[in-house]
Design goal:
Helix 1 packs across helix 12 (268-298). The chain is built from twelve helices and no strands. By secondary structure, the chain is an all-alpha fold. Keywords: Cell membrane, Membrane, Sugar transport, Transmembrane, Transmembrane helix, Transport. It is found in: Cell membrane.
């Protein structure tokens, strides 16, 4: 007996397609989603529009008026007045080691929780998860005091303490992002079949080899998604740099926008141009990793 697969019949030119019935709730959902998207895009579009117009024109006609002239001069002024290249470099010195250290330590800890028979590992995971709920503002005073008391050699800090040093900011980012990454990676590693790890153990693979050569490559989508999130969160940090830094030339780029504010007058069109330049690297990173980011977010939803 032979089986023949039935092919889908093509729609004839005169044959009418089946129309979906009108659903009022779907229309309400689309209107709601459109309003939410507009609420996100409208401030960004207004900032772009304001950055292209002279302040004299917006002061005379208002921000919602039609433009007389459009120019890119504010972008060059913001680039030079705020000294953005130096602050971009400061941000990279803080963010790149912070993201690498966070993901490396969190992945190893998640591997130990998800794959090794450690007593109390569930309690440990609950502690990491609960740490994410702690508001950082309540720790400002004790952390400030602690940072001033921890000594560092001169080649790590000009102030000879953890306060006002790049290492201090890196450590605070690693500490606050560590629990979230452990929670995500531990749950992701549990979806990997244990038979793979057991087969490696039979072949004589140790703990480090099972972590580095077997489990970590399989976690690439989750690591890419976390890399995008961690880069964005650390890059956008404004609080810890102001609290734990005193030298103006060490501040990250988000704090450099203060250089565009005058003592008695602030050109908000110039500030809008500077804000867009500061936000540009996060958009570039997201575009580079958006495929891995989306696949990492939707990977668990396709598993049966």
């Amino acid at each position: 007996m032979t089986l023949t697969a039935s092919r889908p019949t093509a729609v004839e030119p005169g044959q009418s397609q089946i129309k979906r019935p009108f659903r009022p709730l779907r229309l309400v959902l689309h209107v709601f989603l459109g309003l939410v998207a507009l609420g996100w895009l409208l401030p960004l579009l207004l900032a772009v529009y304001a950055s292209l117009r002279p302040y004299v024109e917006t002061a005379e006609l208002g921000y919602f008026s039609l433009p007389r002239t459009l120019t890119l001069d504010y972008y060059s002024q913001a680039w030079s007045q705020a000294d953005l290249p130096k602050y971009y470099l400061n941000t990279l010195i803080i963010v790149v080691p912070g993201v690498i250290l966070t993901l490396l330590m969190a992945s190893f800890t998640a591997f130990a929780i998800a794959r090794l028979r450690i007593p109390g590992r569930r309690v440990l995971l609950v502690v990491f998860t609960a740490g994410n709920l702690l508001p950082p503002q309540v720790l400002i005073t004790p952390l400030y005091t602690l940072y001033t008391l921890i000594p560092l050699p001169w080649w790590l800090s000009d102030s000879l303490s953890l306060y006002d040093s790049y290492l201090g900011l890196i450590l605070i980012h690693v500490a606050f992002q560590f629990g979230f990454c452990v929670f995500v990676l531990a749950n992701f590693m549990r979806t990997i079949p244990e038979e793979i790890s057991e087969a490696a153990m039979v072949d004589g693979a140790g703990v480090w080899r099972r972590y580095w050569q077997l489990t970590l490559p399989l976690c690439r989508p989750a690591l890419a998604a976390l890399s995008t999130l961690q880069f964005t969160w650390m890059y956008n940090d404004f609080l810890w740099a102001l609290v734990l830094m005193s030298s103006g030339d060490k501040l990250p780029v988000t704090s450099a926008l203060n250089n565009l504010r005058g003592q008695f007058f602030t050109d908000y069109n110039l500030l809008a141009a500077g804000s867009l330049l500061v936000a540009l690297p996060t958009l570039i990173v997201f575009q580079l990793l958006h495929k891995q980011f989306v696949s990492g977010l939707t990977l668990g939803s396709t598993k049966g």
